Every structure is written in structure tokens, then in C-alpha cells.
């Protein structure tokens, strides 16, 4: 475009500056993702193998969770992630409502994971469709899916720990108190019931610093 008036020339200049800014941000983001991928590889985690977990989400999980053995079972982990439903039954009407508690950063990671699975022909999508077909509202089905994905992440963290990946300072080998947290798909091994509160121990580990 070759504007001739002052307004047109000003718009072109501003647009050109914005494009240059976006290009610089894109290059910085690309470099940061590359560095983050290297750091994640050093931990030995398999979180990025899960559909919908990108490097940034995996890093957030490792940093926020710390030592996964501080959670006695998948129920406590789900309560901490804010995906465990809260009992809101009244009389013969049995229902659960969304939990507003828990770690909202991790809840966001799981939400993005669920959205990615719903956009593709995945087991998560099939599970969601079955819930809707069974009478759940779309929001209720999404909450059920996020709970299943929370179990899936918990299982992956325990499996990583048992292999010596992303271990805490004490070199724990995982928590065997809940061996059936979930299978490799989001439709196995968890409950829709509300669950106990999470453990309160603070995280002790995260992504290792670059050497």
C-alpha cells in the first residue's frame, strides 16, 4: 500500500511498527520454548507426551506440584487442582457443582488440555460425548473430563517418579498408595464423587536451572 495522505501514511507507519514488534515477540517466544523444552528433557518427564500438554503446561505442573508424593492419592490431587466436584445434593436430587478452590494455574493447564482433546478425535472427546449422551450438560461433561485428566496427570507424575524422573530432594520413588489412579485414557479409574481437601505441604522441586 502506498497511501498519499497524512492519515494513511500514519496508519501504515503504526501498522509497520506493530508488525515488527510482533515479529520480535514471536522470535523471543520461540527461543524461550526451545530452552524450556531442553530443561524439560533434562527432568525426564513424560508430561509432554499427554495430548494437550505443551512445554509451558508441563513446566507449570512440575513447578507447582513439586513433590507429587505429598498428595496421598488422586482424590487429594484433584482437590488441589480444583477439579474435584463439590457435593451440592438436595434431598433426592443428587448433583455436584464446580469447585472454585484449588490451584487455579494448574486448573487452567487442565482446562487447556481438555479443550485440545475436545478439538480432536481423542478418548477425551469420546468420553465427553458419552457424558453428554447420558444427560450431562456440556459444562458438567467438561468438569468430568477435567477430573479424568487430573487423574491422568497424577498417574504420569507418579510414573515419572518411579523411573527417577523429576524427583524431589529426597529422591522419593513415588507413592504406591493409589496404583490405579487412572489408565492411559481419561475414561478409566476415577470417581465423580466429591473428594477430601488436598495435602498442605509446599512444593519442593521444579525445573532445574540451566547450567
Account of the protein in words:
- By secondary structure, this protein is mostly helical.
- Helix content is 51%, strand content 2%.
- It contains 6 helices and 2 strands, in the order H-H-H-E-E-H-H-H.
- Strands 1-2 form a two-stranded antiparallel ribbon.
- Strand 1 and strand 2 (96-97) form a beta hairpin.
- Helix 1 packs across helix 2 and helix 3 crosses helix 6 (138-162).
- The radius of gyration is 21 Å and the shape is extended.
- The termini are far apart.
Strand order of the largest sheet: 1-2
Count of DSSP strands: 2
State which percent range the strand residues make up.
under 5%
Q: Taking all residues together, what is the mean pLDDT?
A: 78
Radius of gyration from CA coordinates = 21 Å
Biggest sheet descriptor: 2 strands, antiparallel
Distance between the termini: 48 Å
Q: Low-confidence stretches at least 5 residues in length (pLDDT < 50)?
A: 167-185, 187-211
Percent of residues in helices: 40-55%
Summed up, the helix count is 6
Look at the helices and sheets and give the structural class. Answer: mainly alpha
- The topology string of helices and strands comes to HHHEEHHH
Amino acid at each position: 500500500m502506498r497511501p498519499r495522505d497524512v492519515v494513511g501514511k500514519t496508519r501504515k507507519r503504526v501498522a509497520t511498527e506493530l508488525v515488527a514488534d510482533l515479529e520480535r515477540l514471536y522470535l523471543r517466544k520461540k527461543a524461550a520454548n526451545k530452552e524450556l523444552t531442553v530443561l524439560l528433557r533434562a527432568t525426564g518427564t513424560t508430561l509432554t507426551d499427554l495430548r494437550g500438554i505443551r512445554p509451558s503446561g508441563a513446566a507449570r505442573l512440575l513447578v507447582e506440584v513439586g513433590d507429587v508424593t505429598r498428595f496421598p492419592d488422586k482424590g487429594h490431587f484433584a482437590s488441589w487442582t480444583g477439579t474435584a466436584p463439590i457435593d451440592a445434593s438436595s434431598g433426592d436430587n443428587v448433583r455436584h457443582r464446580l469447585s472454585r478452590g484449588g490451584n487455579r494455574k494448574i486448573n487452567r493447564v487442565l482446562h487447556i488440555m481438555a479443550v485440545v482433546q475436545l478439538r480432536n478425535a481423542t478418548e477425551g472427546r469420546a468420553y465427553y460425548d458419552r457424558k453428554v449422551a447420558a444427560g450431562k450438560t456440556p459444562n458438567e461433561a467438561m468438569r468430568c473430563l477435567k477430573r479424568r485428566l487430573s487423574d491422568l496427570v497424577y498417574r504420569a507424575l507418579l510414573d515419572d517418579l518411579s523411573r527417577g524422573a523429576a524427583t524431589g530432594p529426597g529422591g522419593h520413588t513415588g507413592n504406591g498408595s493409589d496404583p490405579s489412579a487412572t489408565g492411559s485414557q481419561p475414561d478409566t479409574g476415577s470417581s465423580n464423587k466429591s473428594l477430601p481437601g488436598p495435602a498442605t505441604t509446599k512444593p519442593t522441586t521444579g525445573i532445574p536451572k540451566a547450567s
